[in-house]
Design a protein that fits this description.
The structure is a single chain. By secondary structure, this protein is mainly α. It has one domain. 55% of the residues lie in helices and 0% in strands. The chain is built from 4 helices and no strands. The longest helix has 19 residues. It is elongated, with a radius of gyration of 16 Å. The two termini are 21 Å apart.
């Protein structure tokens, strides 16, 4: 079962991956070679409608929106007692 804070983290990581694919500056360092231009264009198109980190933060802070309970901050994750 995916927990709300895990959904948030997945959204953040996916956004970071898309931004890294879109950026040309670190292709060799990050990907071991150039990223194909078609993939870079696709990442750019997706990012046009992808939530920014600030929008993700705002969504997790709101309690009266449809995503409430579906996505949460990391501090909302249950604590493990060992």
């Amino acid at each position: 079962m995916t927990l709300p804070y895990e959904r948030r983290r997945a959204l953040e990581w996916a956004g970071e991956a898309l931004r890294a694919i879109r950026a040309e500056s670190k292709d060799i360092e990050q990907w071991g070679g150039p990223v194909p231009e078609k993939l870079r264009i696709l990442a750019t198109r997706i990012l046009r409608h992808y939530p920014t980190p600030q929008e993700i933060n705002a969504a997790t802070a709101m309690e009266d929106v449809p995503v409430s309970g579906w996505i949460a901050n990391d501090h909302d994750k249950p604590r493990r007692f060992d």
